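Second opinion, please. Pick holes in both lines of this record:
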Amino acid sequence: MLALIDFASRLVGDVGRFVDIFLNDLILGAGDPLSALLVLVGQVLIVATMAAFGYMAVGALLQEIGVTLPSLGGRGRSE
């Protein structure tokens, strides 16, 4: 149990260090605008994927109680 608490506290404590390394070494320190663009595109893809997955998960949960959300693909159930 102590190892889990130690791991969680170190993970939370290192977030600031991760942000510092990310900004100073990757974005600002590289001096290469292509690196910043690639990181930005990667983040947009991850956020879009997680948003679509979250929409599907919430839609599945709501459908269990009788609420239907519109389909993202336009091919919903034909009732």
The mean pLDDT is 81.
